[in-house]
Design goal:
The structure is a homodimer. Chain A has about 80 residues and is of the alpha+beta class. The first copy, chain A, has a single domain, classed as Mth169, Chain: A (2-Layer Sandwich), CATH 3.30.1280.10. Chain A is about 30% helix and about 40% strand. Chain A has two helices and three strands. In chain A, strands 2-1-3 form a three-stranded antiparallel β-sheet. Chains A, B: It catalyses: N(2)-formyl-N(1)-(5-phospho-beta-D-ribosyl)glycinamide + L-glutamine + ATP + H2O = 2-formamido-N(1)-(5-O-phospho-beta-D-ribosyl)acetamidine + L-glutamate + ADP + phosphate + H(+). Chains A, B: Belongs to the PurS family.
Chain lengths: ~80, ~80
């Protein structure tokens, strides 16, 4: 069994209105030291061992569903663990 | 200047309908090996150095705005970097 952590972030060149809104809220709350906020997604997947290479599967999941490769980048960490 | 990465996840005991929906989509797409999906938030903050301890500031940001401590857990990584 694998525990896979996937991080999806907007590409640098893409505007992040959600991040801007959070930054403005923080400024309103008097945290002037916050200069920038970018918001992304974090996903934890539990995947069973199969015949296929796990990295290949995860890349496919990311490009086909979890991330939009046009505007988002993704990275992942795979951790193998023993089934209980 | 600090680069802070914040990970916000739903507590184990809280249902994650978004994760369940993604899992079902993956099953429909024939990725039967995916057993579980949990979805969280990932945030990158750029924070200027101030008089206060950075960890204290980040904990405050998380509990006051970025996470809902009733249903969510958070963890963070702080990286100090030289301003350009």
């Amino acid at each position: 069994m694998y525990k896979v952590k996937v991080y999806v972030t907007l590409r640098e060149s893409v505007l992040d209105p959600q991040g801007t809104a959070v930054k403005q809220s923080l400024h309103t709350m008097n945290y002037q030291e916050v200069q920038d906020v970018r918001i992304g997604k974090y996903m934890e997947l539990t995947i069973e061992k199969a015949d296929r290479n796990i990295e290949e599967v995860v890349n496919e999941l990311c490009t086909r569903l979890l991330a939009n490769p046009v505007i988002e980048d993704y990275r992942y960490e795979i951790e193998e663990c023993v089934a209980q």
